[in-house]
Amino acid sequence: MATVQDLKRRIRSVGNTEKITKAFELVASARLRRAESRIDAMRPYADRMLELMGITAQAAGSVRLPLLERRENVSSVALLPITADRGLAGAFNAQVLRRAFALERELRRDGVEVKWLASGRRGRSTLTFRRYELIQAWQGFSERPEYADAQAIAQRASELYANQEVDRVVVIYNRYMSPLVQLVTVQDLLPIPEKVIERSEGGAERADLRSDFIYEPEPEQILERLLPVYVETELYRALLESAASEQGARMTAMRNASKNAGELISNLTLAMNRARQAEITQEILEVVAGADALTG
User: Fold this and answer.
1) CA angle 163, 63, 48 (to 5 degrees)
2) If residue 164 lies in a helix (H) or strand (E), which one and from where to where?
3) DSSP strand E in the chain: where?
4) What are the pLDDT digits (tens) for 175-186?
5) pTM for the predicted model, two decimal places
6) Domain spans of the chain, in order of start
């Protein structure tokens, strides 16, 4: 049985841990609010981007562009898991990587070669540990991504697709739903899905609006410039969603850790009180026994 001094040391140690987890929770909560505001600011831009691309695609008509080209025989797919640079976020990183590896197994069963890109130190280290060959990895911005970070990833992914090194690019990331819920999302990045163009073309008002546009240069040239921007925008959205999910997962994980630490301190305090009471009882018994021995 642990002594009172041992229990006091454990209580002190767990108390220090509780202070750290509470501090992490407060920091994650503050960063989560900033991440949510960045997502809210991004959504109108992304929606307008889709609308503009749809209008331009309608005006351009049937046009052959590398990022729109759909290949009949898909022989190589690039997977891009978006993870965090740090841990202490519960299952945030593990669930993205687990889904990426499950997708890899499905593709390999179909005879498709899988190549890897990685965003985030955790994803890069896991893939390297498993001896996967990485085409390229990016890290250092998972908590606060900038548009330039999305541009760098989008440019590399577009190069791989345009040069026919891969026939498809898939992004796996955590979509932010709430601080308690992060939904693992698998999204085809390239080729640009046809439903994206179709979805952004709907509406009678927009159809009337198309006839009012004067294009300079030609719509085909404008669309060719818009497609890479769309890829960058989608990646930036995914990075922001992942950043918010990371902070939400970390805040929840640290809150649970603080709660568990509090419960452990209560249990240890109860055990310490029982140990102290046992020591006192033992001392009383020894005093009584000594007195009996003297009077006997």
Assistant:
1) 90
2) none
3) 76-81, 113-119, 134-138, 168-178, 181-190
4) 998 888 899 999
5) 0.82
6) 26-251
